[in-house]
Structures are given as structure tokens and as C-alpha cells.
Amino acid sequence: MIPPSPLDDPRNAAHAWARYKRLMTIMCAVTGVVVIVSLAVLYAQNGMVSIHLYIATALGISVTMMLMSALMGLVFLSNGTGHDEAIIDPLRDDSSD
């Protein structure tokens, strides 16, 4: 039988998802700062090259950082709530020798 996940409890799930939302909010702000700084450095070194360069740079950095934070946030959520432990491990040897 599969053990119950701690995320099945609504209180634990609400707390975990609130923490995930807070992490994503912080990472959205950090991403905004990184995009602004990188565009400023790019402009300082190259001047106004093409608006498409700046749009592509901003989108590339934004999508990469937000995807990374979303996936790592899900890893932290799964591990921090004990959801990773609520599995059946067929490879674990429970025999006492």
C-alpha cells in the first residue's frame, strides 16, 4: 500500500504552496533586477544596436531564470514537505541480516 503524502493534508499543502508562491515572487523580483542590470551593461558596452537584441536578451534571461526557479521551487516543495518519502521503494532491502 502506498503511504499517504503529507501534501494530502490541506493545511500542509496550503503552507507548502504559500511558501512556493513566496519563493516565486522573490525570484520574479530578482529576475527583474538581473534583466535591468544586464540590459544596462549591454547598452553601456555596445550602445543602441537593435531593439530586437535587447528584447531577445530580456526574454531569454527572464524565461531561463523563471523556469529554473519554478523547477527548483517544486523540488524544494516536494522535499520540504516529506512528499519524496511517501513512496514505495522496490529497491530498498528491509531484511535484517
What's a quick, concise take on this entry?
This protein has 2 helices and no strands. The protein has helices spanning 10-46, 51-81.
Structural write-up:
The chain is mostly helical. The protein has a domain at 19-78. Helices cover 70% and strands 0% of the residues. The chain is built from 2 helices and no strands. It has helices at 10-46, 51-81. Helix 1 (10-46) runs antiparallel to helix 2. The longest helix has 37 residues, at 10-46. The protein starts with 9 loop residues before the first helix and ends in a 16-residue tail after the last helix. The mean pLDDT is 84.
Task: Provide the β-strand percentage band.
Answer: under 5%
Strand/helix succession: HH
Number of helices: 2
> What's the end-to-end separation, in Å?
24 Å
**Stretches where pLDDT falls below 50 for ≥5 residues?**
none
Radius of gyration: 21 Å
Largest sheet: none
Which structural class matches the secondary elements?
mainly alpha
Record field, number of beta strands: 0
Question: What percent of residues adopt helix (DSSP H or I)?
Answer: over 70%
Mean pLDDT: 84
The gross shape turns out to be: elongated
